[in-house]
Amino acid sequence: MPCLRYDNRIQEFRINKQIDAPKLRVIDEAEGNLGVMDLRDALKAAEEKGLDLVLIVPTVSPPIAKITNYDKFRYQKEKEFKKQKQAQKAPDLKQIQISVKEAKNDLLTKVKKLEKFMEAGHKIEIQMTLRGREKFMKDWATMKLKEFLTLISVPYNITQEIKQGGRGMTIQIDKQR
Description:
This protein is an alpha/beta fold and 177 residues long. It contains four helices and eight strands. A hairpin with a 3-residue loop joins strand 1 and strand 2 (32-38).
C-alpha cells in the first residue's frame, strides 16, 4: 500500500460519460458561459467541437462543467499544483555554532558561510555554546555575540532577539528585504 504522506497527485476530474448530474452550468473556452443545460445537450455540444466535457465544480447546484481539451486542462492544473507546492515551502532554518573563545579568522569563515546561506534565502540561527565558567559570564558572552553580528556585511533583520538557553545563547536573523 503506498504511503499517503507523499501523495502528490492532483484532484481527478470527471469527464464526459463519468458525469452523473442531470443538469449542468456549462462554460466554453471561447464563448464563455453557455448557461444551464441538460447533460445530453452539453455532451453533444462538446462532441461537436471535438472536445471533452469536464466537471469542474461538482458541489454547487447546478454543477459547473467546462468544454475543453481534458489533457490540456489537466496539464494546466498540474502546473498550478506544482506552483502552489513550491510557494508553500518555507525557507530552511540554518544553524551556525560559535564559541566565545573562537579566533577572529574562524569567525570570519563562519560569517562567509552565513552570508552564503542568507543569499540562498535561508533564515539563520546563531548558537553560542557556553561551557563551564563561561555560563556565568553572560554579559561577556552577549558582547561576543554582538561582536560576531558586526562582522556580517550583508544587511539583516533580527527575527528573534538574543535568548538564553541551557547550553548558551541563540539569536535568529534573516536577510533584509
